[in-house]
């Protein structure tokens, strides 16, 4: 059972856009030392949509090797074509990932029945724990709670990352799902609240720059300590807001460069953080205590 703060890890890149394998190893050690409970490799924040399939598989292999069993590794393997999702999920299993994270197919706007058949096909094809991922703000595809409940009966489907930010809907989903299917937040501003309602973790962008605080907040919230969880979360609330001033992962990658965690590489069509937002992101880093003035 994977729980807690699961960092949606950036993929560090050099100025020419090549994956920086040395910095990737450094990031993993940083997160383990800071108390992050699990690593999510090549998800949205890891720029999975701009990596080739070979690069995608190589990053997963490297993360698994460097982590070496110290924390769970969840590999992003979603795609908008079912055969591609199956291929990526197979590669992740071969690489030794503990679980896979599969986003709803984007752009082609499948029906709820299409979503059910898509995720069932992947779960049937690859025997590895799989976490569904619903983020309609990015995909323009919204998987309804009823569809998630249908899918939860499959032995390989063990959870869902709910990035809707809708707490009422999230609470209803938690109540409707069996205990074997966990709900994780995919929305940093509401993550503590969702975990206090019964969510079991936070797949977090903010954890890239404030891993210790995000991990502490998750531990408190999962254990039902609302006062402590909210107190820790309040200190990083500005990060939750300002790390989304432009499309993720643009702001968080810029923030990581300010902390010396990676270089400034990012792949088109994403571009470096606009100058007008840099002072705001820096202000959030200072306010949260992860960067000195």
Automatic annotation (TrEMBL):
It is found in: Cytoplasm. The active site is at 133 (proton donor/acceptor), 161 (schiff-base intermediate with substrate). InterPro entries: Aldolase_TIM (IPR013785), DapA (IPR005263), DapA-like (IPR002220), Schiff_base-form_aldolases_AS (IPR020625), Schiff_base-form_aldolases_CS (IPR020624). Keywords: Amino-acid biosynthesis, Cytoplasm, Diaminopimelate biosynthesis, Lyase, Lysine biosynthesis, Schiff base. The record marks 44, 107 as: Part of a proton relay during catalysis. It catalyses: L-aspartate 4-semialdehyde + pyruvate = (2S,4S)-4-hydroxy-2,3,4,5-tetrahydrodipicolinate + H2O + H(+). GO terms for molecular function: 4-hydroxy-tetrahydrodipicolinate synthase activity. It comes from the Bacteria. Catalyzes the condensation of (S)-aspartate-beta-semialdehyde [(S)-ASA] and pyruvate to 4-hydroxy-tetrahydrodipicolinate (HTPA). Belongs to the DapA family. This is 4-hydroxy-tetrahydrodipicolinate synthase. The gene is dapA.
């Amino acid at each position: 059972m994977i729980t807690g703060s699961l960092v949606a890890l950036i993929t560090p890149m050099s100025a020419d856009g090549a994956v920086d394998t040395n910095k990737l190893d450094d990031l993993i050690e940083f997160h383990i030392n800071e108390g992050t409970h699990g690593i999510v490799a090549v998800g949205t924040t890891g720029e999975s949509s701009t990596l080739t399939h070979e690069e995608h598989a190589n990053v997963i292999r490297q993360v698994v090797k460097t982590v070496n069993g110290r924390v769970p590794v969840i590999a992003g393997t979603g795609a908008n074509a079912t055969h591609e999702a199956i291929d990526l999920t197979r590669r992740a299993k071969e690489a030794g990932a503990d679980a896979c994270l599969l986003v709803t197919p984007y752009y082609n706007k499948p029906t709820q029945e299409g979503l059910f058949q898509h995720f069932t096909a992947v779960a049937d094809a690859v025997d590895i724990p799989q976490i569904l991922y619903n983020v309609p703000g990015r995909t323009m595809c919204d998987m309804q709670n009823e569809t998630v409940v249908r899918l939860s009966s499959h032995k390989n489907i063990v959870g869902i990352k709910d990035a809707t930010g809708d707490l009422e809907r999230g609470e209803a989903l938690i109540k409707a799902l069996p205990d074997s299917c966990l709900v994780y937040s995919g929305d940093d501003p509401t993550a503590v609240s969702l975990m206090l309602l019964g969510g079991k973790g936070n797949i977090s962008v903010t954890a890239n720059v404030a891993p210790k605080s995000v991990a502490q907040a998750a531990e408190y919230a999962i254990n039902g300590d609302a006062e402590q969880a909210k107190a820790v979360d309040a200190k990083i609330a500005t990060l939750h807001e300002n790390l989304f001033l432009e499309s993720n992962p643009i702001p968080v990658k810029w923030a990581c460069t300010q902390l010396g965690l990676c270089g400034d590489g990012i792949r088109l069509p994403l571009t470096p953080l606009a100058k007008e937002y840099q002072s705001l992101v820096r202000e959030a880093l200072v306010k949260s205590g992860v960067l000195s003035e």
